[in-house]
Amino acid sequence: MIALNPSQLKRLFNTIKPISLWFFLISTPIALFYALYISPPDYLHGDLVRILYVHVPAAWLAVGIYTVMGLCSFSSLVLRSSFYSLCAQSLALPGCVLTVICMLTGAIWGKPAWGTWWVWDARLTSVVVLFFLYVGYINFCDGALNKAASVLNVVGLINVPIIKWSVDWWFTLHQPSSFFLTKKPAIASEMLIPLLLMTIVFASWTLAVFTRRFFINMETFQRRHSGIL
Amino acid sequence: MSPKAKQRTIRLVLILTLTTGICLFLSGALRENIVYFKTPFELLVLDNPSQKLRLGGLVVKGTLHSKNGHHSFMVTDQTTKIRVDYTGRLPDLFRENQGIVAIGNYDGSKKIFTATQLLAKHDQYYRPQKITEQPNNY
Q: Do B28 and B39 sit in the same domain of this protein?
């Protein structure tokens, strides 16, 4: 990220713009077919497990986007760069939407599985905090440089490890992680495949939205401030 | 103060208020909840067990007794077992050897936890049903 300069990155975004949309349009029916039809019901959850294919990718991306946003905000503050600030701003809405999807699908899953729509355990509460951080960021957005929102974004990065390890550090109702970088996942391969496909769907959607919002935002600010970038 | 400085101050104060708000919200919403439940061992060492609390653990295999909607089973954290009584419909995902969170009151003299609500705590393993497996429903 730091190795490429803004004009190279802008060219990259321009290239990604149509490709990401095609990825999204093609991967969605394939992923949905796999998730809703081919993949087997779970031994415990039955067909309810299919919510996992929306809930988990949304959660991964909600947290991942926030992390990337935080790094962009950090760069924008340090380098006084409106380019990186614009990157962060363009990621905020997709990230916020995915956080909401994560919470809603989680509640829909929780009611039949746990017996309740919601609990204030460490995992769920930290995700609500993430939602407020997104909303706060969007609210404080003003102009290309965006210092206040960027500071909030960077300070909020502390919440990311809390979300991730909440299920390990404290007793929670939410179960521990099923996915690890270094060992086998706790999920069967017939279920891992649709999960990864749905992750591609959400990731390509994010990139498609991001690249479009980036250039729209850039034009808006260029018109307002005549040539900051 | 110049108008720009005023604006920056207002914004900073807003950020700090928001951060404080979040922290207060967190400490309020979490309080006892940061650890969502007590284990059987922790329950036994409590000095004032009369208030409503949450007990979490695994359902011990072979300990479920049900009659007329009144259920009783043992919950363990691999070191201690506690008996839980519950009247009502068991959660769909209630299983032996799976996690459970019981919300209710503990009677220290009778050593029985009377639950008013049960939440099934499922584990992180997902796999298809084996052909020979029976779906066990309670």
A: no
For residue B69, give Cα distances in angstroms to A87, B56, B66, B130. Answer: 58, 21, 6, 30
Domain of A106, in residue numbers: 56-218
Alpha helical stretches, state H, chain B = 3-30, 40-44
User: Is residue A185 included in any domain, yes or no?
Assistant: yes
Is B20 in the same domain as B59? no
Nearest CA-CA distance, residue B51 and chain A, Å? 19
What span, in angstroms and rounded, lies between the C-alpha atoms of B71 and A219? 66
Retrieve residue A75's tokens. 């760069």
Contacts of A111 in chain B (CB under 8 A): none
Q: Could you tell me the pTM of the whole model?
A: 0.87
Contact residues, chain B, for A186 at CB < 8 Å: 124-126
Q: Is residue B133 part of a domain?
A: no
Of A45, A148, A173, the CB nearest to B15: A148
| Chain A contact residues (CB < 8 Å to B) | 40-46, 49, 52, 112-116, 119-122, 125, 129, 132-133, 136, 140, 147-148, 151-152, 155, 170-173, 175-178, 186-188, 190-191
Q: What is the pLDDT along chain B (138 residues), one digit of tens a residue?
A: 667 767 766 776 677 678 777 777 776 666 666 788 999 998 888 766 668 889 999 999 999 999 998 999 999 999 999 999 999 999 989 999 999 999 999 988 888 999 999 999 999 999 998 766 655 543
B81-B60-A119-A134 Cα dihedral, nearest 10 degrees: 110
